[in-house]
Here is the input.
Amino acid sequence: MAAIDRATVEHVAALARVGLTDEEITRFAGQLSRILDAVDALQAVDTSQVSPTASVLPLDNVMREDEVRPGLTREDALANAPLTDGEFFRVQASLEER
Amino acid sequence: MIPGSIAEAAALLRERKTSSRELTQEAVRRAKADTHNAWLHVCEERALVQADAADQKLARDEHSAATPLLGVPWACKDIIGTRGVPTTAGSRMLEGYVPPYSATVVSRLDGHGAVMIGKTNLDEFAMGSSTENSAYGAARNPWDPARVPGGSSGGSAIAVAAEHAVYALGTDTGGSIRQPASLCGVVGFKPTYGRISRYGVVAFASSLDQVGPFTRTVEDAAIVTEALMGADVHDATTMPLPVEDLRRDLGRGVKGLRLGVPREFFAHGMEPGVDAALRAALTVYESLGAELVEVSLPSTDQGLAVYYLIQPAEASANLARYDGIRFGKRVEGPDLVETYRRTRGQGFGPEVKRRIILGTYALSSGYYDAYYAKAQKVRTLVKREFDEVFGRVDALLTPTSPGVAFPIGEKVDDPLSMYLNDAFTLPVNIAGLPGISIPCGFSDGLPVGLQVIAGSFKEAMLLRVAAAYERATEHHKARPPAAVSSTRSRAESRS
Here is the structure.
């Protein structure tokens, strides 16, 4: 499979919303290429008749009654927030004004 | 002193030879005097409140129905959420974070009257095999402070090995309990996936993560697991199975059992001293009357590749929650996306960023089928081979780690060589099986671990096999120089 170059690292880091320094981009490109080379061994395994395993448990949907239970208070929920107005989390605009 | 086991501590407390307050004060003193960077937070005040409550129960003889955990000090890996007590996951991202609720495992131990001494060091978000990836500094092995304790639950392994606490909790996604237990010379047990609630535990790779204990004896591992196990309404991945008596078969021995020795785990990459200790352990099992059967698990050779696709993929999704808005670190930028990028770029350390990039890549359009979906299919093959083998043998015996504790700094710039530390433990997570590491001797003065693996939900069999070896050998009684010196410093401070 293709080795990971700097442009790929930058693209994936943008998807993951992780800011990287120039030095990190170069270093990760080399390291991730070597890791991907190692995991490429999988491509040789014949899995044409095999279904994927997402969970090892023999459970499907776990149902329960929809009961009201105590949850976090507003005070507790906001206690660790870096920026609030006292009642809500403060968030920068995610849509531009028209 | 710190008692050598939960059973011993329980007896001392019931005979009034010590009090929970006395044990707790000693544990807190040792934790504060620790030179291995095992602890991120010691919660003395909370611990003493718990100790006094336990002493009152003991004085009123209300302990007849209580478990042996009442009043006994324990150490908590700092990835397990604790109400009112800082929980960092070893990351700058969660510096100063104080959870508004406790993990189910913590609530259950609280309910047993156990005394939590504090929170232990770990690789950031449990990503690592050496505890060098902690944002709060590397931890040191109590057998040789120039070497790593293993990881990611390195601090919990140290706390038990160096006798700061009687037992500890860790989490194990690819070996993070068993490998540090092996490198520090203690017992480390990962129960079957689904046995123990992960509610309130900082999520890493959700199809692999499991909570489990570090202890000095196999019996203690059973005691702690009994207290933790069972369905939890807050965690839909806990199996609705009754709580079992996991100690019921500890004394039954292995005579007549068929124990599998998978050849792929002995084939390559093992240090000679580890190989010799493992061969000697196999001989012990033969002398105890077990029948050793060579078996093959060919797909476990693909385990590393499966693991290093599925685990970072799940991690990249789980760690999306760290956005600088609801909790944790925030580095503000000119707009929302730039705030995300700066917060995550500066809040996460290099290994975490590496895995987020790898996982996002494996899940991204165009690569999903070749990497993530392929890994899930090979996962099916790995699990199928284990299931097939457990139709023929009662348990498997393998090394826990290919080597002993390595020097700090040796592998930190070579992620792939670091990942190989988990080669023998991660197949167990891929298949969701229970696995335990128990001390089985030394190589160049450093501990070696024997791994016992059993079928899903066959913890009682696994513990039976492990206990038989422990009874027949003395390895678990060896204590590191650090434990001896923490006892001595107390004697000196009294004189």
